[in-house]
Specification:
heterodimer, A: mainly beta, B: 111 residues, mainly beta, six-stranded mixed sheet, 11 strands, 0% helix, globular
């Protein structure tokens, strides 16, 4: 069964460092997303991406965050200068369509720890 | 009032029981409703997706949406120990990509 793949599974970084979280969405999917889940809290939307541009972003997704689809298969989330409060599980998701055809498939996540 | 409310549990039931999981919401613009299952240290896995009021059945799972009461439910029949997980409701309006998740209900099914 096709799945969304995320690497690394764990990332430890020092405050102020840049991190790049990587995702390989399901191959025929066109819509890509990043969500995060701080320990003990809800899963929160960060950004959606379609046709090589951001469709929508949340208030969390400030200038420190960026997304990119550098080639035909990868989808990345970059945090330019990490803060302690960026520590969370980051989930990549993809879907084939939107609206009534939207079904998001999530990866297993990258646990980011900022020290 | 929170946009989406979900009892965090934990809910502990014996194998074979019928489980009822519920979410209420306050935003009448929500049009699409989902239930996800999340095992420990894994990503959410889509179980059910619906965009209309009424019932939708898939195997042992039934999703129910009541838009007039702003209430959705997931029923699990003949529950199994492998159903032990956290169940997340999620929903969104028609004009945004942003899914709003509930806090999740932790379910434990014991043999």
């Amino acid at each position: 069964e096709p799945e969304v793949t995320q690497t690394p599974s764990h990332q430890v970084t020092q405050m102020g460092q840049e991190v790049i979280l990587r995702c390989v969405p399901i191959s025929n999917h066109l819509y890509f997303y990043w969500y995060r889940q701080i320990l003990g809290q809800k899963v929160e939307f960060l950004v959606s991406f379609y046709n090589n541009e951001i469709s929508e972003k949340s208030e969390i997704f400030d200038d420190q965050f960026s997304v990119e689809r550098p080639d035909g298969s990868n989808f990345t989330l970059k945090i330019r200068s990490t803060k302690l409060e960026d520590s969370a599980m980051y989930f990549c998701a993809s879907s084939e369509g939107t609206g009534a055809n939207e079904k998001l498939f999530f990866g297993s996540g990258t646990q980011l720890s900022v020290l | 009032q929170k946009e989406v409310e979900q009892d965090p549990g934990p809910l502990s039931v014996p194998e074979g029981a019928i489980v009822s999981l519920n979410c209420t919401y306050s935003n009448s613009a929500f049009q699409y409703f989902m239930w996800y299952r999340q095992y420990s240290r894994k990503g959410p896995e889509l179980l059910m997706y619906t965009y209309s009021s009424g019932n939708k059945e898939d195997g042992r799972f039934t999703a129910q949406v009541d838009k007039s009461s702003k209430y959705i439910s997931l029923f699990i029949r003949d529950s199994q120990p492998s159903d032990s997980a956290t169940y997340l409701c999620a929903m969104r309006p028609y004009n945004t990509d942003k899914l709003i998740f509930g806090t999740g209900t932790r379910l434990q099914v014991f043999p």
